Amino acid sequence: MQAFKWIKKAPLSARVGVAIIALNLFAMAFAPVIAPYSETEVTGDVWLPSSAQHLLGTDQLGRDMFTRIVYGARNTISIALLITLLSFAVGSVSGFLAATLKGWVDQLLGRIVDIIMAFPTLIFALMILSVLGTSVPVLVVVIALLDSTRVFRLSRAVAMDIEVMDYVEVARLRGEGLWWIMRHEILPNALPPLIAEFGMRFCFVFLFISALSFLGLGIQPPTADWGGMVRENAGAITFGILTPLWPAGAIAFLTIGVNLVVDWFLHRSSALRH
């Protein structure tokens, strides 16, 4: 109920963003119900125009584009969300540990992160994926670990400011343990910037997966994926066919929606909660 009250008081841009996210989540959750055909079913000729049978036409193999877009929402968004959650679990915990323990732990974790961040993310990911393969588990682990370095930097910086507060010192004097302090004192006060960063990192991961799929090292066919669908149908542009613009538009549509909500949340939570 509290969330609905916030949305009701939100500006128009934020409500548009919430509506876009809700639409994509609905498509992700109910893809088999919404889609008129199965994910890999060939239903017509190649690159047919929009019609009553094919709302967005067909792709390079004659599969229904609307169906592929809907299933692409399920595949791309769910994997991007899983990667973002994993990267935040690793990055925030390690960042809190570095800020709380300091000393050699902070130095060790900081140097590891510096080494990983010294390589361009895309080149590093392409190198690892070309060696380990492009299965979904490998894709999830590799991108999550690379993205966790950014989360580490933010969570460490926020935790460094929080752990010198009086209420943290009081908790230490009471004899509270490390994990209790991290969970009950640091985490609640670090949530606003971390939640805002979660939305931004989700956008980055979402676009990163799409870029890898466009290069052929992301989610592999015949699984529907928006980035891969752009690559597969790119040749249609030569003939004036707009088929690849549908998945490209879906990528931009969701990215804009998430950014609208993140901007609103950043405006709401501009200070730490005490």
Low-confidence regions: none
Task: Tell me the strand percentage band.
Answer: under 5%
Estimated helix fraction: over 70%
What is the CATH superfamily label?
A: MetI-like
**What would you say the CATH architecture is?**
Orthogonal Bundle
How many beta-strand segments?
A: 0
Radius of gyration based on Cα positions: 22 Å
Mean pLDDT: 89
Described by strand count, sense and barrel closure, the largest sheet is: none
Along the chain, the helix and strand elements come as HHHHHHHHHHH
How many domains? Answer: 1
Please characterize this protein's 3D structure.
By secondary structure, this protein is mostly helical. It has one domain (23-268): MetI-like fold, CATH 1.10.3720. Helix content is 72%, strand content 0%. Helix 4 (65-101) packs antiparallel against helix 9, helix 6 (121-132) runs antiparallel to helix 7 and helix 9 packs antiparallel against helix 11. It is elongated. The model has no long low-confidence stretch (mean pLDDT 89).
